[in-house]
Amino acid sequence: MKHTVAITGISAISGLGHDLKAHQAAMLAGRSGLRPLSDFFADQLNGAELQGAWIEDRKLLNSRKWAPGSALAIHCAKQAVADAGLDGEALKRAAVIAGSSRGNAWLSDWPGRRPIKLMAASNSMHGEIASAVTIELGITGPWQTISSGCAASLDAIGHALMMLKCGIVDHAIVLGIELPLVPEIVNDYVKTGVLSTSGINDPYHPETAGFFPGEAGCALVLSNIPDTQAPSIDGFWCNSDADSPIGMPNDGAGLRQLLVEASNALGGADTIRAICPHASGTRLHSLAEERALIDALQPTSPISLHPLKPFTGHTVGASGALDTAILAHHLREQQLPPNLPLSPPPAPFTLPTTPSPATGSILKIAVGMGGHNSVIALRPPAQ
């Protein structure tokens, strides 16, 4: 499916920074947001020697009325709406699409929070993340919360694109929200074996062995109204592996097929100049995604890779939209973000450590536990 829409508003907060300018400054300085999880959990976690990234300002997450994920969504949505200058009837009729792996699950005992008992049922629902934004911003357009694992918020972008293409709305607010640093959730990741056991923050290193969890909230305002000053999204593709509840095929077959479809729709692999891969950090995923990229695109000229999880940690269901927000912020300046010094991928893929010019199509990949693959295509502003 190809349909070009403008990204007119963006906001993000994560362990890397309180806004997108702070994210950009940290990345330019070559600084990661990862810290020892023992600083966050004390003795509540099995394997507290692990690293992760968390939102520093905890007041943003505390609300008597709304659950923490919903409070974060409201904060991010207001910032993105202001950035887009979206107001009045246009805002009122907008869609709100949220993506989150866990929603507000296991957040009833959030530290420092005194919830209202009347909101107990609502606070436990995934859907509250999107509904809270519509209530607080006075939006009467459709809302939805998508929970397709680590692909959730990239799928939320895709869902918004479909609504825009169908003419259901002219504007959509897409949210990526994830607060996974709760003992029960992190301990489940430890039991599953997907968190890093080597401590190597490098998804292409031969000894990479899992991801580093992170918190994040982000929002994007998408519009059908052309804007030559704004980055754009001109395609969304998704499929399923039907293979494993926790991994993906060794050869990345589902992702390979998806990349072929995206490449063909965009006019061939030569139109793709950069890719923001999923690059979670697990060894299986590293090898499978690498294989899929090589086999699907068969590049003959350099394609730069821009994995962002080494900076932010893996923010699970928020990661697709968070990466897109970071990319969009750089694309406004006709740039692609720098990388941390990482192990080199196979030629002709490159990992530039300084900002580089943005041209052609940029692909953003997300892969969800359970075998869900999603890809969107972005472009820098026309001028």
Task: Characterise the protein shown here.
The chain is α/β, with parallel strands linked by helices. It has two domains: 5-223, 3-Layer(aba) Sandwich (Peroxisomal Thiolase, Chain A, domain 1), CATH 3.40.47; 232-379, Peroxisomal Thiolase, Chain A, domain 1. It is built from twelve helices and 15 strands. The chain has helices at residues 20-28, 38-41, 68-84, 88-92, 120-123, 128-137, 152-166, 183-192, 253-266, 283-297, 309-312, 319-331, and strands spanning 5-14, 35-36, 51-52, 95-99, 143-146, 171-178, 216-223, 232-240, 272-276, 303-305, 335-336, 349-350, 356-357, 361-368, 372-379. The model has no long low-confidence stretch (mean pLDDT 94).
Concise overview:
31% of the residues lie in helices and 20% in strands.
Name some characteristics of this structure.
383 residues, Peroxisomal Thiolase, Chain A, domain 1, eleven-stranded mixed beta sheet, two-stranded antiparallel ribbon, single chain
Low-confidence stretches: none
Number of domains: 2
Inertia-based shape: globular
- Which strand order do you get reading across the main beta sheet? 5-4-6-7-1-8-15-14-9-10-12
Query: Total number of β-strand segments?
Result: 15
Q: Return the average pLDDT rounded to an integer.
A: 94
Task: Tell me the span between the first and last alpha carbons.
Answer: 25 Å
How much helicity do the residues have?
A: 25-40%
CATH topology of the largest domain: Peroxisomal Thiolase, Chain A, domain 1
Proper CATH architecture of the largest domain: 3-Layer(aba) Sandwich
Fraction in beta strands: 15-25%
Number of helices: 12
